Amino acid sequence: MKVYFIGAGPGDPELLTLKAHRIISNIELCLYAGSLVPVEILSFVPKGATVVDTANLNLKEIESYYINAKQENKDVARIHSGDVSVYGALSEQIDILDKLNIEYEIIAGIPAYVQAAAILNTELTIPGKVQSVILTRTSFSSTPMPEGEDLVNLAKTGSTLVIHLSIRRMKHIARELSPIIGNDAIVAVLYRIGWSDQLVIIDRLDNIAKKVRENKITRTALIITGKNFKKKSEMNSVLYDSHHNHLFRPK
């Protein structure tokens, strides 16, 4: 018996990895968060398998499914959105499985921010402009942010910011970022990336909160801002420069 923590990608079933598809297609018990994983992903679950939406379950209730699966010697697919390593509430589930002596495996998925960059036709790291990407969130009726990881400090680094789980605080975020990146900074908000009702909003920092409110976006959205949205850098990566030599292109 084994539990597979599966990153299902941002929502588009065609972005599911081959390994994830193979496991889901042969699973006996499927646990998924209905608020985050689209039903199209569940179409790969075989007929006769037990499918459970865990959106309204607490950790103890989820644990009971692992215990029963072990007793019945059934493999479990625990499907998460995006990649399970990013805000996947993974560690507490692993702790439970370790205590229960249940084997598990983590199956990587495409993170939402990677698909977001593809949708925006942009690179998150631009030579000469920005070479770092910060994945973060803000605290809103949830786990407090560690000291030093507040949005103001992170924005001061000049990195591309990818802000998760914070769309309800868009007005607050704009107010905090304004003195650092300027009101004319470009911000992208992507709602339900890869879903059939996907929505993309791109606007200035000083107008993005209004657009979010007008479109009634209150959840399942990603916020991205950074120098990658500004005009093209005059500097190119040295990787493909004809004068740059490396292991696979020696002199």
UniProtKB/TrEMBL annotation:
Record's signal peptide: none
UniProt entry keywords in alphabetical sequence: Cobalamin biosynthesis, Methyltransferase, S-adenosyl-L-methionine, Transferase
Residues annotated as domain Tetrapyrrole methylase: 2-208
Entry EC no(s): 2.1.1.133
GO biological process: cobalamin biosynthetic process; methylation
GO molecular function: precorrin-4 C11-methyltransferase activity
One Pfam family recorded for the sequence: TP_methylase
CDD domains from the UniProt entry: Precorrin-4_C11-MT (cd11641)
Assigned protein family: Belongs to the precorrin methyltransferase family.
Protein name, as recorded: Precorrin-4 C(11)-methyltransferase
Protein species of origin: PS1 clade bacterium
